[in-house]
Amino acid sequence: MKLPIKSSAVIFSLLTFGAGSALAADALTVVSWGGAYTKSQLEAYHKPYTAKFGTKIQSEDYNGGLAEVRAQVESGKVTWDVIDVEVSDAVRGCDDGLFETISSKSLPKGANGVTAEKDFIPGALTECAVGSIVWSTIYAYDADKYSGSKPTSLNDFFDVKKFPGKRGLRKGAKVNLEWALMADGVSHNEVYKVLETKAGQDRAFAKLSSIKDHVLWWEAGAQPPQMLADGEVVMTSAYNGRIFNAAVQEKKNFEIVWDKQLFDFDLFAIIKGTPRLNEAKRFVGFATATEQLANQASWISYGPTRKSSIKLISTHATSGVKMMPHMPTAPNNFKTAVLANAEFWADNGDELNERFNSWLAK
Q1: Are 310 and 228 within one domain?
Q2: Strands (DSSP E) along 121-253, which ranges?
Q3: Looking at the structure, do residues 99 and 222 belong to the same domain, yes or no?
Q4: Which of 166, 312, 335 is closest to 237 using CA atoms?
Q5: Torsion-angle region of residue 113: left (phi > 0), alpha (psi -120 to 50) or beta?
Q6: In the structure, what pLDDT confidence band is assigned to residue 19 with cuts at 50, 70 and 90?
Q7: One domain, residues 73 and 143
Q8: How far apart are CA 150 and CA 41, in angstroms?
Q9: To which H or E segment does residue 338 belong?
Q10: Are residue 112 and residue 171 in the same domain, yes or no?
Q11: 214 and 355, same domain (yes or no)
């Protein structure tokens, strides 16, 4: 029996709507930090993945932490699929059952034919996450604001008499406590040994208190370069890639001070309970393959976590700037670098952030 034209149109609309909903549901949601960093992922991972497999990638931003992940997993309403996390959150999220396990054997071999276990640099693979970049927290200043001597060390960041003006710091305990101890004389090789003690923690907070009145706090990675550009601060902690982007893409006269940089990995983890598990695993494997990691390094100054990617690093995708000198791991930048201790922060992060928030409120 034929249906009336009006009824046919209604059914066609419903079928079309259903197909659209199915397509939307099939899109993979990848959560990251926004700005120039997410831009580099869009170019190196998302667009090539969609071109190869046809799956659309929906990108969302967050400011770190596990609160939203925990809420989704515990409610059984998982809408995120893949998330870019710091190592401490990767470890803690795995321990708390928030992430799916990822076998290194499921990852593609390096372009040189070696297994993933041998190709990734030490620390870049965990039980539930796969490393993509090496990045660092540095501090930077606007060179246009200094006609005489310029900051060159971490001690200069804490010296408000020699270099007066507001400082920017990320609102949290991590990095700030390590820097405070090193600025107070602790060797960069001994910082976590001291920070593990109550006396060391007291010492770190005391040093932070010495500049507390001179600090503006930031929470999102896009804020530090904007704070510098607006003249709100004379120097600020920041992610090195954000400062690179402001200097190269936006032509800002920003300088990075690499002394005592705190370097870390970012990794991809898969949210426990995602209905798109197989797609998520395929994306993580694709995004962390040799060529994709090298391609990301042509968009932002974060180093790839695969050894086989390093020789493929060349110039910036649009400016032509040679990228290796801007990498955290470049020899001239790495002399006093400190690897963020993920195990320490997984064990002590909640307690120290609670103390930090209480200290900040005083």
Answers
A1: no
A2: 129-142, 167-170, 215-218, 235-239
A3: no
A4: 166
A5: left
A6: very low
A7: no
A8: 34
A9: strand 338-339
A10: no
A11: yes
Is residue 252 domain-shared with residue 272, that is, in the same domain? no
CA distance 291 to 49: 12
Average pLDDT in the 233-260 region? 95
Tally of domains within the chain: 2
pLDDT-derived band at 331, boundaries 50, 70, 90:
confident
State the CATH number of the domain containing residue 300. Answer: 3.40.190.10
Cα dihedral sign, 152-153-157-163: negative
Residues in the chain: 362
Instruction: Say which residues have a Cβ less than 8 Å from residue 87's Cβ, sequence separation at least 6.
Output: 123, 126, 129, 264, 265, 267, 340, 342
Tokens 């499921």 map to which residue? 106
For residues 128 and 272, membership in a common domain is answered with yes
Mean pLDDT, to the nearest integer, of 219-242? 96
Lowest mean pLDDT segment, chosen from 29-33, 41-45, 87-91, 257-261: 87-91
Q: Residues 226, 347: one domain?
A: yes
Digit-coded pLDDT (tens) for 165-201:
999 999 999 999 999 999 999 999 999 999 999 999 9
247-254 long-range Cβ contacts below 8 angstroms, 24+ apart: 248/316, 248/319, 248/321, 249/36, 249/318, 249/319, 250/225, 252/142, 252/225, 252/228, 253/142, 253/143, 253/144, 254/140, 254/141, 254/142, 254/143, 254/225, 254/228
Q: What is the pLDDT of residues 273-286, one digit of tens each?
A: 999 999 999 999 99
Residues 164 and 270: their CA atoms lie apart, in Å, by 45
Output the CA–CA distances (angstroms, integers) from residue 359 to 30, 164, 191, 355, in the order listed: 34, 23, 21, 6
Instruction: Count CB atoms within 10 A of the CB of residue 223.
Output: 21
Q: What does the pLDDT read at residue 87?
A: 92
Beta bridge partners of 216: 168
- Containing domain of residue 282, as a range? 5-134+265-333
What single-letter DSSP state applies at residue 219?
-
Query: Distance between alpha carbon 97 and the CA centroid of its chain, in Å?
Result: 21
pTM of the model: 0.77
